[in-house]
Amino acid sequence: MAKKKVLVACGTGIATSTVVVNKIKEILTSKGLDVVVDQCKAAEVPGKAASYDLIVATTPITGSGDTPVIRTLSFLTGVGIDKDVELIMEKLK
Hints:
By secondary structure, this protein is α/β, with parallel strands linked by helices. The protein has helices spanning 15-30, 45-48, 74-77, 81-92; strands spanning 4-10, 35-41, 54-57, 69-71. A four-stranded parallel β-sheet has the order 2-1-3-4, with helices on one face. Helix 1 (15-30) links the parallel strand 1 and strand 2.
């Protein structure tokens, strides 16, 4: 499978997205996926979305174009994380 690119967006692109990026990288790599996971502010999504296969957001975002978006807090809370990982893997196939 080719390398996939995931963009993680949060309100400020600093603390929350850093936690989510690290968890997504760790989980997807352990499942054998070749991924690049970057982070940004929600306001930066419209200018970056086209370069990514998937966006994971912890806040509402707009301007993602054709790039699929998964909005979740599970990577912060742990609640529902398995379901979200399955959804991410499905979207990246």
